[in-house]
TrEMBL record:
Protein name, entry field: Pullulanase
Native source organism of the sequence: Lacimicrobium alkaliphilum
Presence of the UniProt keyword Signal in the record: yes
Top-level taxonomic group: Bacteria
Leader peptide range in chain numbering: 1-21
Keywords: Signal
Length: 147
């Protein structure tokens, strides 16, 4: 009887310990954030309605602004009004993605804090900024000059 009690106690202890340990849950976004803004030096980093991105398709968003070609880079991000984690998009890899060249996509990290994109226009004009959430885990950002 003592042996049965000991084995039952050991089993209960083992089950208790197993129940306390769990794997961390990774929450992955399944859709893009609802409201995003083009935020940068050109609008004092504000979430202004005129810089709100609008949907072109289910996962592709765009906004546009006039940029002056003065040889200086424009720092910017794509973020919601509150700079929320998961909706605060900057570059993913400093070497590969920080500096954006016209008509070339770079990878974004929407949980970054200070990873500002940089873009230096060669001509003054209206530029369109795109973010593509086709892969929600690794969205891409692209800039093109509006004709």
């Amino acid at each position: 009887m003592k042996n049965l009690f000991r084995k039952t106690s050991q089993l209960l202890l083992l089950l208790s310990v197993a129940a306390c340990s769990s794997l961390p849950q990774v929450i992955t976004p399944v859709s893009p954030p609802d409201e995003l803004y083009l935020r940068g030096v050109f609008n004092w980093w504000e979430a202004e309605e005129s810089f709100r991105l609008y949907k072109l398709s289910d996962r592709l968003y765009t906004a546009e602004t006039e940029l002056i070609a003065d040889g200086q880079p424009y720092d910017f991000r794509i973020a919601d009004a509150d700079w929320s984690k998961g909706a605060n998009c900057g570059y993913q890899d400093k070497e590969a993605d920080e500096v954006i060249r016209l008509n070339r996509s770079v990878n974004a990290d929407c949980s970054s804090i200070n990873n500002n994109f940089k873009f230096t226009p060669r001509e003054t004009g209206i530029y369109q900024f795109f973010i593509d959430f086709n892969d929600v885990q690794s969205p891409t950002v692209k800039i093109r000059r509006k004709k």
